[in-house]
Amino acid sequence: MTSTDWPLWEVFVRSRRGLSHTHAGSLHAPDAEMALRNARDLYTRRSEGVSIWVVPSASITASSPDEKDPFFEPAADKPYRHPTFYDIPEGVRHL
Amino acid sequence: MTTMAPDTGSYEAVFDAAVAADERIEPRDWMPDAYRASLVRQIAQHAHSEIIGMQPEANWITRAPSLRRKAILMAKVQDEAGHGLYLYSAAETLGTSRDELLDKLHSGRQKYSSIFNYPTLTWADVGAIGWLVDGAAITNQVPLCRCSYGPYARAMVRVCKEESFHQRQGYELLLTLSRGTEAQHAMAQDAVDRWWWPSLMMFGPPDGESAHSAQSMAWKIKRHSNDELRQRFVDICVPQAESLGLTLPDPDLRWNEERGHHDFGPIDWAEFHEVLRGNGPCNDQRITRRRQAHEDGAWVREAAAAYAGKHRDTQGEAGA
């Protein structure tokens, strides 16, 4: 009857200076400005944020869950990228 | 069917393994249709309960006895709207739309918690709702923070953090009345007498009669049975009622040393099913009010959409 078809927006909140924005949730809004205002009312009622990003959900490109294993597989067999891969004699310091 | 079976089978194995390993299922993962449908039903009912739940309390905003209480109550009712929106968003990740959810609420095809079909007759009811209704909701919701569906679990974490204020303000309100004049004390007791049994019904039918419980527990949507959570709530409330100086309206309520729990009297399930069928004191009033609010807000939604559309067109011309 009063279908609005407002697009969906993803909300990212920076909880305090020095930290990165983190995904908080999503909401519907007709435009970016209203999305920001709605995000403030919905996700920062208790001073949870000092900065908000809103991004149209449709603009996000995501890796497919179906491809999960092959897509991330190149990293799986390279343990030498981790510091724990290397044997260092006991007593060697600052390494 | 023979060609589809191996694929579905392997997807299902991945899903089953994730649930068994206590991992979360995320929106774009494959999931059984019945799991998706069950979540939509539960999350939608939960969201609708938050939205309808604004009404009985909003009933007292203009008559709050002090500016302090009025500010608290407005913040609480605003929180309930927020909780509804977190939950609608979670439901939408399962492929349903906001409009569809609202339509189903307005046409009665999806339910909300039957507790909100009881009236708030006095100011003390605001306290009883905070203490008992929100208390029962918290008991239900804390385990949902570990629900197998990621977006629902994350919404519950936010909700639970905020519900704690709701329960404490209710308790403090009742405590103030209980320690007030004789009439105020009686008002608090009357509210507790009326809200106690409906609050116990919030946990749903006994385990043996609960339609969705077993499957929901197997999927780790639910973590504890209805009766288990109900017992936990009773055990929590008994000492809290003593501290309030109020009694709970159950002559059979007593500590059972052997079980390590409180025994309590039989619940009137006939009343529960009547309210569920639409014959509670306020069923019609709640849905009529909700529809009216939605219709009254239509011009705001239309104006915002028109403004956004005009702005987009102007930008398009400038860019061209």
UniProtKB/TrEMBL annotation, chain A:
Q: Which InterPro entries match?
A: PaaB (IPR009359), PaaB_sf (IPR038693)
Output this protein's name.
1,2-phenylacetyl-CoA epoxidase subunit B
Q: What organism is the protein native to?
A: Streptomyces albireticuli
From TrEMBL, chain B:
Specify the domain of life of the species encoding this protein.
Answer: Bacteria
Q: Which PANTHER family match?
A: 1,2-PHENYLACETYL-COA EPOXIDASE, SUBUNIT A, PHENYLACETIC ACID DEGRADATION PROTEIN PAA
**InterPro entries found in the cross-reference section:** Aromatic_CoA_ox/epox (IPR052703), Ferritin-like (IPR012347), Ferritin-like_SF (IPR009078), PaaA (IPR011881), PaaA_PaaC (IPR007814)
Can you quote a single GO CC term? cytosol
Q: What is the protein name for this chain?
A: 1,2-phenylacetyl-CoA epoxidase subunit A
GO terms for biological process, alphabetical: phenylacetate catabolic process
- Name the Gene Ontology molecular function terms of this record: phenylacetyl-CoA 1,2-epoxidase activity
